Amino acid sequence: METQERILIKAHELFMRYGLRSVSMDEIANHLGMSKKTIYQYYADKDALVDGTIDIEIERSKNDCTGHRNQSENAIHEIFMAVDMVQEMLKHMNPSLMFDLEKYHPKAYKKFLDHKNKFFHEVIKSNLEWGIQEGLYREDIHVELLTRFRLVTMFFMFDKENFPASKFTPGQVIAEITDNFLFGMATAKGQKLILKYKQQRQKK
């Protein structure tokens, strides 16, 4: 593995585990057993490392979402697979990560927002259209409005002001919001599937 790749992979691992603000360039260098000077040969500053970390996450989310679409039985199943992925990601992700990104690394945060507003928007919209075609979502739903609604509410799990960690886990927030989102637009046929997938997950 090349030195540049090693540096980025280790920085990504540490940022995800401890948050962005609490990991210094010294700590990254110590974990890698190299000098800060070596890191600076490849990355101008911490911002550049955070930027590279966001690139990893964007690429991962694209691959995961494409995989979900290819493997899912139907539109509702696709959403449950996505929530499973998020729940797994949350086990290895420091809850302060999004807050740190927005506050201390605005350039990387903008890159993430662009990804959210383009790629995730398309994934959600496509899912809603698919669900309508299958008769799982009501035909009268406003696709564009609900796409934007879903985009906003997906990230409520990081909103510590309204959903403090002392009362709710991020996993609880995304699961509860998703249930209400799905039941709100599902047909009778769709609601049976929602209950089926929920029961399957309770048995795990």
UniProtKB/TrEMBL annotation:
PROSITE patterns: HTH_TETR_2 (PS50977)
Binding region for DNA: 24-43
GO terms, molecular function: DNA binding
Cited InterPro entries: Homeodomain-like_sf, HTH-type_Tx_Regulator, HTH_TetR, Tet_transcr_reg_TetR-rel_C_sf
Residues making up the signal peptide according to the UniProt record: none
Domain of life assignment: Bacteria
Native organism: Sediminibacterium sp. KACHI17
Entry protein name: HTH tetR-type domain-containing protein
